[in-house]
Design goal:
The chain has 277 residues and is of the alpha/beta class. The protein has one domain (12-268): Rossmann fold. Helices cover 46% and strands 14% of the residues. Strand 5, helix 5 (160-182) and strand 6 (188-195) form a beta-alpha-beta unit. Helix 1 (21-32) crosses helix 6 (217-230), helix 3 (72-85) packs parallel to helix 4 (109-138) and helix 4 (109-138) packs parallel to helix 5. The N and C termini lie far apart (45 Å). The relative contact order is 0.13. Belongs to the short-chain dehydrogenases/reductases (SDR) family. It holds the Pfam family adh_short. Keywords: Oxidoreductase.
Amino acid sequence: MTETLASLAGTTVLITGAAMGMGKMYAQLAVADRAAHVVLWDINGELLEAAAAELAGRGSEIHSYAVDVGSLEAIEAAAERVRTEVGTPDILINNAGIVRGKYFWEHDQRADIAATMAINTLALMHITREFLPAMIAGGRPSRIVNVASAAGLLANPRMSVYSSSKWAVIGWSDSLRLELAQAGHRHIKVTTFCPSYIKTGMFEGARGPLLTPLLEPADVTKRVWQAMKEGTPILMMPWTVKLSTALRGVLPLAAWDLVAGRVFGVYKSMEHFTGRK
C-alpha cells in the first residue's frame, strides 16, 4: 500500500513553468503545505520574479531560476545551481509545456516541431535525470509528477506534434514508475497526469468534446496535488478521458472515428483554437 505524504513539511519542491498559471498554483500549494524550500523554474524572468515576490514571506524559502527547459545546457546549469544552493528536490513537478495547434504540414521544423518535443518531452526526461540519482540515494519519500495530456492517449486533428510529445511522456513516465518499483526504489512514486482541456489560456479557442467541459485550473491543481501525495500512478481528468480511452481500445477504428468525430466531437475540438496570445 502506498504511503500518503501527510504534509510537505521540511521538503524541497521544484516546479517548472512556475511563473504563471497552474505552475504558480502548484507553488502556492507547496507553500500552503509547509514545504521548506520551493524552487521555481520558468523562462519568463519578469513573471518569475513577480511570482517569487508574491510567495515570499509565507513560511517557505523561495528560490527562482530563469531557465529555458528546451535547452539541455540550460537545464544542466540550473540543476547544478539547485544542488549547490538548495539541495536535492523531494518533489519534482514537471509542469512546463507548449502547444502548437495546426495541421502537421503547417508546422515549422524548429519553432514548432523541435521546440514542442524539446519542452514537452525531452525536458521532463533531462530534468528528472538530473535529480533522480540523488533522490534514489537519499531514501526519503519522494514524488515526481509528469504533466502529460489526454492528447497523449487519443489522436486528434491539429494536434499531431503536441500529441506525439505527450504520448512519449506517458510511455516514459509510466515506464519510469515501473523501473523504480522493480529496482526497489519504492520511496519514489511517479504520477502521470493526463487532463483534457484546462482553462489556462494555453488552449484558448478549443472546445471541449461532449460531456467534457473545460477544466478549472484551481480544481485541477488541487486534485493533482492530492494524487501526488498519495502516489497515484496515473490521473485522468475528467472521467470522460478514461471512457474515451476504453472505447478507443475496444471499438474498430472506423467505428471509433465515427464516435469520436460525430458523436463526441473530439476531432473538431481544435477547429477554433487560437492559443495564448
